[in-house]
Amino acid sequence: MIRTRFAPSPTGPLHLGHAYSAIIAHDFARRQGGAFLLRIEDLDQSRARPEWEAQIFDDLAWLGLTWDGPVLRQAARSAAYEAALSSLSDRGLLYGCACSRRDIADAASAPQEGVEPIWGPDGLIYPGTCRPSKGSTPDDRAARRLNMTAALSNCSKIAFQELATDLQTAKNHIINTSHFIDNIGDVALSRRSGDAAYHLAVVVDDAAQHITHVVRGADLLGATPIHALLQHLLNYRTPIYHHHALIRDPDGKRLAKRDDAKAIAKFRGEGASPDNIRAMIGLPSRYKL
Ligand code: GLU
């Protein structure tokens, strides 16, 4: 059975880009008698607000979307994330890292003057300052990073399937070891606070919710190799992905959370109907499912 999900962070209003993601995932599942699940990605407790969460439920219900099963909240999932981290750590795949962003920026630009530091899906590629030469026990107070070379020691490539906009044609994305080493690097899987990082949490949660198809914005396509690698390491099945085009404002800029001008709540306040919202983002009306 098809199972899709929508995984917003309660750090601002849902805007047209969120509606696009949620509706595609919802309609895709419903058309095939599948399930649509909701997950509140509130890992960043300093920015998550209960009023934004309440607004998410309200906007989704108003859009006519229904979701199945209990809503998963990342803030309540630390035991599951810790279990996954332990499983990686027990195999010597993690190391503790006490570097700040500043340290990383300094180290990345220091060794060879004039050589541009490389940016990966998480910002500057970690230059390896804290990487031990042999496996070591991560420091409790440090962030935990995946030792990419060790993680890839038993495989030469990682693959995932991507569905085209017709949601039918599948294309294989095959990622070589060199891409992981050169363009992604040793990603952080937990923060200095001890909390799980997004890449770890999203993979553990998609597995826990038995998600078969992940629908999300094209801005996350560069992070998907990390997720496919973690699924491989944690023995989870890799879902099929669909990264949709981003909804942009008229001057081509990506919609941001703070872009209240495109908030669903604003259109609601102005008297728009759910079908008007669907029309604005080029999706068919609810009655044509
Ligand atoms: N929480 C992320 C966001 O709001 C979505 C992550 C995902 O779909 O994997 O942009």
Nearest-angstrom radius of gyration? 20 Å
Distance between the termini: 18 Å
CATH fold topology: Rossmann fold
In helices, the fraction of residues equals 25-40%
Approximately what portion of the residues adopt beta-strand conformation?
15-25%
**Low-pLDDT windows of residues:** none
Main pleated sheet: 3 strands, parallel
Bound ligands:
glutamic acid
Supply the CATH class.
Alpha Beta
Lateral strand order in the biggest sheet? 1-2-3
CATH superfamily: HUPs
Instruction: Please state the overall shape, judged from the principal axes of the Cα atoms.
Output: globular
| Secondary structure: number of strands | 12
What is the number of domains? 1
The helix-and-strand class reads alpha/beta
- Provide the CATH architecture: 3-Layer(aba) Sandwich
With helices defined by DSSP (H or I, 4 residues minimum), what is the helix count? 10
Set down the secondary structure blueprint.
Layout: E1 3-6, H1 16-31, E2 35-40, H2 50-62, E3 72-73, H3 78-90, E4 94-97, H4 101-109, E5 119-120, E6 123-124, E7 143-146, H5 148-151, E8 157-163, E9 170-176, H6 177-184, E10 188-190, H7 198-208, E11 213-217, H8 224-233, E12 240-244, H9 264-269, H10 274-280
Parallel strand pairs: 1-2, 2-3, 11-12
Antiparallel strand pairs: 4-7, 5-6, 7-10, 8-9
The structure holds glutamic acid.
